[in-house]
């Protein structure tokens, strides 16, 4: 993968078995970096994810005057907190396609006394941010669009936050609420801050990650069900001294799925029963499809000894890991339906449309709706060239289509632009290859 080939060809593999050490969680890594930067004190971050998205956050924080160092040869960092105020008051920030960076930074910068611009790759300028901008501007922030209304790029200047009650929609992306929660201590100098969610809140487990991380940095949020959140007056972030980043539960899904599809066992290390990530619930879906799951505090293992069953389930709680289920459905004994996945439409690509298009190339019959996907598996997986849409999860998901002998001998599944996995897991295809076995079960 260091050569960044234009494509990679995956030939039929009957079996997957072994153990994988996971890279750090993207969601935890970027939250940790921003909270450590805003905190009072110095934070040692162990096993930070090495990826494009964390590079974006690290670069942005550096441009904002945050000092950090990396221990050579490791993913361990030391971040010197700025105690709530970025030293640099004017900056132009390039955010790539990192939603976990641009959304929280937008809210934090709106609470600062500065003049900032934020831009990204073309796809970032198609990903909505209007609900967050509207929520902040309603209470006196000064955020303007420099391109299309409702989307980056943005210009953020000093405003006058005049309200302690912020309202935000919850049905497009949970990252908008995460951004407001993480920025709330910057607004709670004189009054409690209350954040009210309008409509249904999607991806609740990601909000649980946010609340957990804020608590580790000394800020406890009072939650009224999933409708309102209160941050007490005078709250501020304090370094926990040292923080270890969990392995990425979304990335775990591909390896665990490989164990379920081929029989396994495949074990992932770095995430387990004590995880704060909602995507560990992916294993519940695998178990529903007939896989056997065992877990420890810091590991999960998947195996199976019978054909997998079709599934019809609501995946609102695990939208990223649910993409993996759409591929596992190729190996099920009937028609699988993934429901309540509308947030796929506004991710790195329109994932419902992209998944439907590429699954059809493999011979599956696929129906799609505004927020659902239905997959009828083919008798045999067809050789195909899979486009990845500059979306890391498309590339990783479709690597599973070469498993369990449903692809005829001598054929291949070609993954275009495999280097897009650098967004969260640069060494994915190397690690994936380590668990593949040529012998049958």
Task: Note down, in words, how this protein is organized.
The chain has 441 residues and is α/β, with parallel strands linked by helices. It folds into 2 domains: 7-23 and 248-437, Enolpyruvate transferase domain (UDP-n-acetylglucosamine1-carboxyvinyl-transferase, Chain), CATH 3.65.10.10; 26-230, Enolpyruvate transferase domain (UDP-n-acetylglucosamine1-carboxyvinyl-transferase, Chain), CATH 3.65.10. It is 28% helix and 23% strand. The strands form 7 sheets. It has a 4-stranded mixed beta sheet. It has a 4-stranded mixed beta sheet with strand order 5-6-4-15, covered by helices on one side.
Spatial shape: globular
- Looking at how many chains there are and whether they match, the oligomeric state comes to single chain
Any idea what the radius of gyration is?
22 Å
Biggest sheet strand order reads 3-16-18-17
Which CATH architecture of the largest domain would you pick?
A: Alpha-beta prism
Name the helicity range. 25-40%
Question: What is the CATH topology of the largest domain?
Answer: UDP-n-acetylglucosamine1-carboxyvinyl-transferase, Chain
Number of DSSP strands?
A: 25
Sheet-strand content, in percent, reads: 15-25%
Q: For the report, how would you describe the main beta sheet?
A: 4 strands, mixed
| N-to-C span | 28 Å
Secondary-structure-derived class? alpha/beta
Q: Averaged pLDDT, please?
A: 95
Discrete helix count? 12
Report the CATH superfamily of the largest domain. Enolpyruvate transferase domain
Low-pLDDT stretches: none
Number of domains: 2
CATH domain class of the largest domain? Alpha Beta
């Amino acid at each position: 993968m260091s050569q960044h080939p234009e494509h990679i060809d995956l030939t039929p593999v009957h079996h997957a078995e072994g153990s994988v050490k996971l890279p750090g969680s993207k969601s935890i890594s970027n939250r940790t970096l921003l909270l450590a930067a805003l905190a009072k004190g110095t934070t040692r971050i162990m096993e930070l994810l090495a990826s494009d998205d964390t590079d974006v956050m690290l670069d942005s924080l550096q441009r904002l005057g945050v000092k950090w160092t990396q221990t050579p040869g490791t993913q361990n960092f030391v971040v010197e907190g700025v105690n709530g105020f970025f030293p640099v008051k004017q900056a132009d920030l390039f955010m790539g396609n990192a939603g976990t960076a641009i959304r929280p930074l937008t809210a934090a910068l709106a609470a600062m006394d500065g003049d900032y611009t934020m831009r990204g790759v073309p796809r970032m300028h198609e990903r909505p941010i209007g609900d967050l901008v509207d929520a902040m501007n309603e209470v006196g922030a000064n955020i303007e669009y420099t391109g299309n209304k409702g989307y980056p790029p943005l210009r953020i200047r000093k405003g006058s936050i005049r309200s302690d009650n912020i309202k935000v929609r919850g049905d497009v992306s949970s990252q908008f609420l995460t951004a407001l929660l993480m920025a709330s201590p910057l607004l709670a100098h004189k009054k409690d801050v209350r954040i009210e969610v309008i409509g249904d809140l999607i991806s609740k487990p990601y909000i649980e990650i946010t609340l957990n991380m804020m608590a580790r940095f000394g800020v406890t949020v009072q939650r009224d069900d999933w409708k309102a959140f209160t941050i007490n007056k005078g709250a501020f972030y304090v370094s926990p001294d040292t923080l270890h980043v969990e392995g990425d539960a979304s990335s775990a899904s591909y390896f665990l799925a490989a164990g379920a599809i081929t029989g396994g066992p495949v074990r992932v290390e770095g995430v387990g029963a004590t995880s704060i990530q909602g995507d560990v619930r992916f294993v519940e879906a695998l178990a529903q499809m007939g896989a056997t799951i065992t877990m420890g505090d810091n590991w999960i293992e998947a195996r199976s000894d019978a054909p997998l069953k079709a599934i019809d389930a609501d995946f609102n709680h695990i939208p990223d890991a649910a993409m993996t289920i759409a591929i596992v459905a190729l190996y099920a004994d009937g028609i699988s339906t993934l429901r309540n996945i509308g947030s796929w439409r506004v991710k790195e690509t329109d994932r419902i449309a992209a998944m439907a298009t590429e699954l059809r190339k493999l011979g599956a019959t696929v129906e799609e709706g505004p927020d659902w996907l239905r997959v009828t598996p083919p008798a045999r997986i067809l050789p195909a060239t899979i486009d990845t849409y500059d979306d890391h999860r498309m590339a990783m998901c479709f690597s599973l289509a070469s498993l369990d002998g449903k692809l005829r001998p001598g054929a291949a599944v070609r993954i275009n632009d495999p280097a897009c996995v650098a967004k969260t897991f640069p060494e994915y295809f190397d690690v994936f290859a380590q668990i593949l076995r040529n012998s049958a079960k």
